Amino acid sequence: MQIETHHIKGIKVAEIITDEIILKTTEDGIDLLGNLYYQGFDKIILHKKILLPAFLILKPGSPEISFKSSRNIGCLW
């Protein structure tokens, strides 16, 4: 897994680059969020290929991903 850093309008954004599915459980997502927050990132770019389809719920017309644990993450579209 590689973390590419972007700075967009003063916001530090982490883009997760990998060919593997790394988010398989809610705990995986929470661990990733905690690690990135600790590193000073404010937002995360996740490519859908790293997520199991059953892991998340995409809300049409809404710029967020709702994890099944009811936690929300802002996304950049």
Defining key terms:
77 residues, 3-stranded mixed β-sheet, 3-stranded antiparallel β-sheet, disordered C terminus
Secondary-structure topology with pairs:
Blueprint: E1 2-8, E2 11-17, H1 26-38, E3 43-45, E4 56-58, E5 64-67, E6 72-74
Parallel strand pairs: 2-3
Antiparallel strand pairs: 1-2, 4-5, 5-6
Describe this structure in words.
This protein has one helix spanning 26-38; strands at 2-8, 11-17, 43-45, 56-58, 64-67, 72-74. The protein has one domain. The protein is of the alpha+beta class. It has a three-stranded mixed sheet, with no helix packed on it. The longest helix is centred in the middle third of the chain and has 13 residues, at 26-38.
Placed side by side, the strands forming the largest sheet appear as 1-2-3
**Unreliable segments of 5+ consecutive residues:** 66-77
Strand composition percent:
35-45%
**Straight-line distance between termini:** 22 Å
Extended strand count: 6
Shape: globular
- H/E series, N to C? EEHEEEE
Instruction: State the helical fraction.
Output: 10-25%
Rg calc: 12 Å
How would you briefly describe this protein structure?
By secondary structure, this protein is an alpha+beta fold.
